[in-house]
Each structure stands twice: as C-alpha cells, then as structure tokens.
Write a structure and sequence with these properties.
The structure is a homodimer. By secondary structure, the first copy, chain A, is an alpha/beta fold. The first copy, chain A, has helices spanning about 50, 125-140, 155-165, 180-185, 200-210, 220-230, 245, 260-265, 280-290, 310-315, and strands at about 5, 20-25, 35-45, 70-80, 90, 100-105, 105-110, 145-150, 170-175, 190-195, 215-220, 230-240, 255, 265-270, 300-305, 325-329. Chain A has two domains: about 5-120 and about 300-329, Alpha-Beta Complex (Quinone Oxidoreductase, Chain A, domain 1); about 125-275, Rossmann fold (3-Layer(aba) Sandwich). Chain A has ten helices and 16 strands. The longest helix of chain A is centred in the middle third of the chain and has 13 residues, at about 125-140. Chain A is globular. Strand 14 of chain A pairs antiparallel with strand 14 of chain B, so a sheet runs across the interface.
C-alpha cells in the first residue's frame, strides 16, 4: 500500500518530526481522466514551512491530517487520460507520497532538455525559475552590476550565481562553511562570504564589495538583508525571494541600515515565482542554451526513501543541503 | 551686523541647543553677479538632521563652524545681477541666517501662485513636491487605492492626504494627539490614527483598514512601517520619504511583518525629491489647479526671530509642529 506524509500538528517555531505522520493511502480506482504516478523524486523547499501555518498566504495552508503537497517527478503507471501513457515521466505537485492519483490537467510532461529528471525539481524547475525571474525581472540585474546573493549554495542561490555570471555581473555569494563556499566559488562567484566564520556579514560584505552592491537576491533575510542595506549603491534593487532566517522565528528582524534606502533610492521588492509561469518558455530557452554551453552546474543533496522526508525538510533550516535538497523514492 | 547659525558640534542622537552657535557674519561687498537677500522666512526640515552627521549622503554634511544651510524666502536688498532687482521676493538655500549673499544662479524667483510667500517653503515647495512625486510617481497611487500616511499633520504628510483625496483615494493618516488628528480629518482623511493613544499602530491600523492598504507613504519608519507591512495588500507600494523615528536613534528598526512582502509582492522604494526637480512644472500645474479649486489647505507652526531657530528645528523631533515648521525673521 502506498504511503504519504500528513501534517499531524502545526509547528511553533522550528518544526519537529512529531509534526509529521506517515500514513497508508487507501487504494482507489482511477476515475476517467485521471492518472496514477509512482513518484521517483520528491522536493522539499523552504516555502513549505509557510504552508504548515494556519495563515492565509499565497499558497493555502496544508490541511491537518491530509497528505502534504509539493513538487514531484514520477512515472505514470496507469492512465485513464489521452494525455499520458504508462511509462511516461511527468512532474506534478502531488509530492510527500509514494504514489499520486491526479487529474491529467494537474500533471505536466517533462521539458525536453538533456538533464536528469530530478533537475526539473531544482535548477530547471521552480527554484531555477525563481532565480531567473527574481534576478533578471525583479532585480533587473544587468552586465557590470555587482550582485550579492545569500544562501548561494542552495538550489535557488547557486543558480542565481551562475545566471548572474552568464549575464556579465560581478557576483558575491554567502554560504555557511568552507565546503559550501568552495562549491559556490567553483560556480564562478568572484567572492564568497562564509557567514559561519564569526565575522559579521556587514563587515565581511564590506571587505569584498568595496564599490558597493547593485543587486541583492535575498533568500534569508535578517543579518544578510541588513548588510545589503549597509552596502547598497544608489538605485540598488533587492529581490526578496525568501527569509529562511525568520520562517521559524518569533523574533523581529532588526535592521540598522534601513534608512539608507532613502538617500540611496534603493528598492526592495518581494516576489513569487508563480507570477512568472506564463513566461516559462523564456526560462527554458535561456537555461537550455546555458546548459549546452556548459555554463550551468548543479549539486544535489539526496535523502533516500520516503521515511527520511521530514529529515530532508528539516535539514533545509540547518544548512544541511548543498544544491537542491531531494528525496529519492 | 547680520547673524547666522553655525554647527558648533555634531550631535550624537537627539541634537541639543549646544550643537548650534549664533555668530555674526562679517559684512562684505557684493561681487559681480551676486545678490544680497534679507531673509523673511527660514525653513527647518527633518532631513537637516542627516546633514549634521559627518556621513556621506545625498546632501553633503554641514561643515563645523560654518553657517548652516536650508530653504529660505527673502527680499533682494542689493543686486549686482541682471536677473534680480532690489525689492523682489526670491527663494534659495542660504537659510539659517538673517542675510544671504549668493550668486544669482543659486537664487530663484517665486512661482506665480496666489499664496503667501512662505508657502513656497512648504506645501508649494520642497515638502509639497516630496508629497506629490512620492505619492504619484514612487508609490503610483491611483483612484480607489487605500493610502496610509504617517506624520499626516506634518508639512509633507498633510499634503499627501490632500493630493490623495484629490486623486480619489481612501486616506488613513496617523498623527500624534487629538488636535493634530482633528486637523488631519478636516483635510479630508477618511480615518485618522492617534499614535500617541497607547494602542499599538498595527492594531489601530487594522481597525480602520479592514481591506488592507495599497500605498504607504512613510515619514517616520519604525512601528508605522511595520504596521504597514502587516496590513499591505498584494502589490502594495511603499514610498519611503523619511524615517524621523530613527534619525536620532542608535537602536535598530524592529520589523515583525517584513516577510509578508514576499507573499504580497510588496515594493518598498526610497526616494529623494531632488530627483524630480526637472518635473517641477507638473507639480506647479496640478497644485495650482487644486489651489484654485479650494482643495488645498495648509497650516504653519511659526517661531519668531532667528534666535528661536534651533528650538524650531528640535521641535520637529518631538512633534511640535502642525503643518510646516517655519521661522519668521
């Protein structure tokens, strides 16, 4: 019998394993128009933390006691739709489970790029689109800009680094620990800050951004955001993608350099990647080109088996991943 | 002998009278192209606090021991320029002094609107332009928007209220104390929050902005900014004009609702009015029209005599003014 993770209780602060419960999914026949998918790869992403709260947001909260949702790649094993045949690899949002039964219109074929299927959960999927549209549309990064990106060893951040380099920007990344920093540097970053080194981020950034920053791509909030405010140039654009530092915290964000945005005419813009899905063709065209030119590298941190999924998810909040965090079923 | 206020020392935190020194200006003959102006009205504005610090910003710091500068309206009493004749009323930045000697190209004739000359230091001058371009260009306020403005009884805020009403917005103002709130309401505000009432701003705003806010015009920062983040609608635009709460404070700004800007795709944009001076004609055209239609009211808090100028300036930081704070010489 196929199993799924449900939300057992809503966390206060950092989630714990007790917030999740593994249940058997009752077997059922397909209705007309539905497909049955054996999931191969499941995604865990920081934004899912928000869905664990009972708060109205851009995605509805997970329901207590119901299977959780998220990006997934799987193989169609049974189909009552003209659109998909058994054996076909597809992507969908029926994650957090071994098997998904979905109407065919909630299932998409995989794009035809020369990559492993799980890449469509990371660099060639939602996190990659987040990097692409956040950097180029929201922050309007252009050749010659100095771009600062936090969580630069993460799925989104590592793609920001590489797109920014492909566009002719100078790139400063921040990551935690020597291994991650070395990887970010190998992606082409011109400078990397180790935020776990003990040096305040505002000081470390000042040392490598002597002429300031023009773009900040924010995945973490908090101290990194304040450092970006401290070193933003006139007209700097901040794309606020995530604030992993505050998702589990009841403490307010403390900003010492916020008033600089007046004199420097800086812009801080929050965004959601789903606002850009109608422009996915631009993304696949450019990413496909960079992929062929060898300009895109990626990394994955893989947990094996559905049982390990809460651990994979919780690892996102302790810096447990280099590149995309994935669960292989 | 004409006198001027000089910066005696740089304040830490809130300035004190000891930071200012009143000196005699040595008399001197006019050079070719210069004019001598007897100042009638002097402006004190919150942004001047920034110039008291020895920090590179959009305006250079005041020099220690030198006469301070600021907006002023005066009468030409001697001219060695073709551009101005004795008796003419003019505006310029040689404030904080009884008499200014300036090259004619640093002096402007007064616009020809049917108002008292001191209005060109307030609603029909820099503070008014700040309100106009901040609200309409930076925040892109449009008919039907709910606009929240802090320091709504100030020179800038009171003009924001009236322009927003003229444009068909719903307006919520915040001011300190019953008298100021009553005045803001008399300007047409649909709701007014008394931030001195003891109710947290975030709660008070929630009670009068049941459907959220689309625009926030920020003059104060801090708790007001956080309240606006808490109640911002999807796509809300924040024009950050000033942060009077933090100019004198070493404490960081604490924001509990900052992460909302992601899901709500909010934009926070700092701006400086001088970036819009080439579009002053738009401002005078629209303001002239509203003035004729009786849509603009203003108020002034006047201190008499140059000796009182530091008190007038310090009053800005304790909420001492309703409408524009001015010194009459």
């Amino acid at each position: 019998m196929a199993r799924a993770w449900t939300l057992a209780s809503r966390p206060k602060g950092l989630p714990t394993p007790e917030n999740f419960a593994l249940v058997d999914l009752p077997p059922r026949e397909l209705a007309e128009g539905e497909v049955r998918i054996a999931n191969r790869w499941l995604s865990v992403d920081p934004y899912m933390r928000g869905r664990m709260n009972d708060v109205k947001s851009y995605t509805p909260p997970f329901e207590l006691g119901a299977p959780m949702q998220g990006g997934a790649i799987g193989e169609v094993i049974e189909s009552r739709s003209d659109r998909f045949k058994a054996g076909e690899m597809v992507q969908h949002f029926g994650g957090w489970r071994e098997e998904a039964v979905l109407p065919a219109d909630q299932v998409q074929p995989l794009p035809q790029l020369d990559v492993d299927p799980q890449a469509y959960l990371g660099q060639l999927g939602m996190p990659g689109m987040t990097a692409y549209f956040g950097l180029l549309e929201v922050a309007q990064a252009k050749e010659g800009d100095t771009v600062f990106v936090s969580a630069a060893a993460g799925a989104v951040g590592s793609t920001v680094v590489q797109i920014a380099k492909a566009k002719g920007c100078r790139v400063i990344g921040s990551a935690g620990g020597a291994d991650k920093c070395a990887w970010v540097e190998s992606l082409g970053a011109d400078a990397v800050i180790d935020y776990k080194s003990g040096t305040p981020v505002v000081k470390a950034l000042g040392e490598v951004a002597r002429t300031g920053i023009d773009v900040y791509f924010d995945n973490v909030g908090g101290e990194h955001l304040d450092a970006a405010l401290a070193h933003g140039n006139q007209g700097a654009r901040f794309a606020i993608c995530g604030m992993i530092d505050v998702y589990n915290s009841a403490k307010p964000t403390e900003l010492r350099y916020l008033a600089r945005l007046i004199g420097m005419r800086m812009r801080i813009q929050g965004f959601i990647v789903s606002d850009y899905t109608d422009r996915a063709a631009d993304f696949y065209r450019d990413m496909g080109g960079w992929l062929k030119d060898g300009k895109l590298q990626r990394n994955e941190t893989v947990f094996d088996g559905l049982d390990a999924m809460p651990d994979a998810f919780l690892g996102l909040f302790s810096g447990g991943n280099t590149g995309k965090m994935l669960v292989r079923v």
